[in-house]
């Protein structure tokens, strides 16, 4: 069983429990549910292309940073000129929560991605109700039919969709018209090794009408300069910023060098 299998098995149980407490109808009545969203895909094309992540810990790094307030991190990223922010909302493996998303929303106006392991439409409603502009779909844990239906559901709520892959098979099943951004995740989930070569190898299979995003293991500006000629317009960066005392300041220095 891989770490992703474990996370997904837990996620199914978590969603089933939550549904007993808060119905989809109640989620639709949350004040933020009717908020007008902004497009993360467009922001990537028009700005720095950096999606800066809030990430306290992860299966590959037990502690990254637990001492910061999410609203300070969010404000710092927005001021730095990031095109958007990824907010991890998984609690068990990443130390995140939907409250993090809500606080990041309250502190900023730029596009927010709910970074979650989505297995059910319910989580897409939660994303919208807590102020997200975009959701992540992980091809490794979804069927093609689920990618089609979840992305269509998100688009109907005016949320952008980033669908991420680790290999060619996952990428090919992610090529769906209701997906806006196709992400290549550079982290091998069996070994946790990261290599931006994965992005370079797989990008040839991405049609030009999708925004191309490279994710994970980006730790310097030269990686971005290497990836841009391959057509990447989005770059998801977590640990490199979050491991510092001031992620916003780190993002500022990084973006100024682009
Ligand atoms: O980061 C992990 O260890 C991880 C393990 C299992 C599933 C997903 C995982 N990470 C999620 C991400 O995709 C990254 O947080 C994101 O791309 C940023 O990566 P990085 O810049 O390397 O922190």
From TrEMBL:
CDD domains: IGPS. GO terms for molecular function: indole-3-glycerol-phosphate synthase activity; phosphoribosylanthranilate isomerase activity. InterPro entries: Aldolase_TIM, Indole-3-glycerol_P_synth, Indole-3-glycerol_P_synth_dom, RibuloseP-bd_barrel. Residues 4-249 form the Indole-3-glycerol phosphate synthase domain. GO terms for biological process: L-tryptophan biosynthetic process. Pathway: Amino-acid biosynthesis; L-tryptophan biosynthesis; L-tryptophan from chorismate: step 4/5. It catalyses: 1-(2-carboxyphenylamino)-1-deoxy-D-ribulose 5-phosphate + H(+) = (1S,2R)-1-C-(indol-3-yl)glycerol 3-phosphate + CO2 + H2O. Its EC number is 4.1.1.48. It holds the Pfam family IGPS. Keywords: Amino-acid biosynthesis, Aromatic amino acid biosynthesis, Decarboxylase, Lyase, Tryptophan biosynthesis. PANTHER family: INDOLE-3-GLYCEROL-PHOSPHATE SYNTHASE, TRYPTOPHAN BIOSYNTHESIS PROTEIN. This is indole-3-glycerol-phosphate synthase. It comes from Dokdonia pacifica.
């Amino acid at each position: 069983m891989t770490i992703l299998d474990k996370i997904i098995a837990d996620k199914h149980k978590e969603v089933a429990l939550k549904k007993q407490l808060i119905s989809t109808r109640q989620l639709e009545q949350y004040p933020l549910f009717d908020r007008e969203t902004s497009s993360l895909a467009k922001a990537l094309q028009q700005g720095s292309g950096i999606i800066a992540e809030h990430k306290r810990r992860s299966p590959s790094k037990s502690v990254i940073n637990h001492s910061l307030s999410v609203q300070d991190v969010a404000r710092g990223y927005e001021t730095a000129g990031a095109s958007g922010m990824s907010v991890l909302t998984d609690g068990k493996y990443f130390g995140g929560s939907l409250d993090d998303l809500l606080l990041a929303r309250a502190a900023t106006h730029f596009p927010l991605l709910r970074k979650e392991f989505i297995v059910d439409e319910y989580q897409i409603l939660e994303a919208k109700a807590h102020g997200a502009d975009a959701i992540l779909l992980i091809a490794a844990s979804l069927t093609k039919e689920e990618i089609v239906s979840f992305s269509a559901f998100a688009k109907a709520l005016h949320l952008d969709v980033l669908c991420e892959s680790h290999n060619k098979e996952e990428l090919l099943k992610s090529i769906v018209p209701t997906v806006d951004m196709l992400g290549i995740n550079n982290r091998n989930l069996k070994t946790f090794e990261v290599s931006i070569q994965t992005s370079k190898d797989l990008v040839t299979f991405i049609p030009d009408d999708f925004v191309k995003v490279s994710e994970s293991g980006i730790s310097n500006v030269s990686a971005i300069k290497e990836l841009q000629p391959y057509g990447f317009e989005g770059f998801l960066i977590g640990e490199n910023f979050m491991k510092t005392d001031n992620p916003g300041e780190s993002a500022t220095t990084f973006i100024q060098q682009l």
